[in-house]
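Hi R.,

Here's the input for the nicotinamide-adenine-dinucleotide complex you asked about:
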Amino acid sequence: MKVIFFSSKAYDKQFFKEANNPYGFDLRFLEVPLTPATAVLAKGHDVVCVFVNDTVSADILQELAAQGVKLIALRCAGFNNVDLKAAAALGIKVVRVPAYSPYSVAEHTMALILTLNRKTHRAYNRVKEGNFALNGLMGFDLFGKTAGLIGLGKIGLCTARILKGFGCRVLGYDVAETPEMQEIGIEFTDLDTLYKESDIISLHCPLTPQTHHIINKTAINKMKKGVMLINTSRGALVDTKAVIVGLKNEQISYLGLDVYEEEAHLFFEDLSNKVIQDDVFMRLLSFNNVLITGHQAFFTSNALQSIAEVTLQNIVAYAQQEELQNEVK
Ligand code: NAD
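And here is the predicted structure with nicotinamide-adenine-dinucleotide in place:
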């Protein structure tokens, strides 16, 4: 099997090369993203391996099919970036890594919550400069606060367990209730109640037509004044312009983002010597109660190892014509 990687970084190479030892697949790593212009580079490869911001649209799939590609291997969990109907029509299978480390994302969610609350990022800079004043650094006890989680899958449940450990009351909303939610002590509720009662709201659902801009002006107006909003799932779950209005009128007092709806033009690259043209993003950065990380919630060594292993196992299953357990249909 010949596998070509788009949007690959040095760390992808490192973990995939190690995981490939037992298989000996022919792996080719490209740094460029998959675009209509770069799709032709897949010529002669059986498998195209892509990441979160590679758009696998119908026209690109057509080009890939023409180049002989038979399998799209997503090295991530989300699959909102793939036109599944077009892939099926062309006979191209799509596989993903449904669960690599829910802990990585849940723990990063906690890092955003704790940093925004206790302002350790600001304290770090102050102390380095010999400024030990505490004004502006006051936080609140997480103990006894109400956290509302939208999406109670692997990451949502993991986040709920951690928040329970902090002594939070945890409300949860999902399209379906499972016994595990009860076991953890999550109060399953409707969205309006979650918005009304939560001090902290964190998103853990996938991006679908139903969840696109689930956090919009109407939702924000239903939230508690001074709410903390966290998004480590997918950028387009949040209407960024509505959130900026919420920050300006202080309905939202804390915003933690690991994802952003226009992130494909920004994240995973060093743009420190360039002028960022995205004015909405720059407005977000101007608030001192907004903390943004560049889609790094997944980025632990455990998760990268697991992503590489499961992706290669998916390719093995395809090569051996076994049932594709991680196929996205
Ligand atoms: P999962 O499939 O285990 O859980 C998703 C949950 O969302 C499911 O319980 C599902 O029923 C629920 N859901 C679906 N539609 C919903 C809706 N309309 N309203 C409420 N809930 C709904 O997925 P997961 O592994 O927990 O991952 C969650 C999301 O996290 C992924 O979709 C992905 O976008 C994101 N993610 C981000 C990173 C990162 O690095 N920032 C890494 C991995 C995953």
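One thing worth noting: The pocket of nicotinamide-adenine-dinucleotide is lined by residues 77-78, 99, 102, 105, 150-156, 173-176, 204-208, 210-211, 232-234, 258-259, 295, 297-298 (CB under 6 Å).

Cheers,
M.
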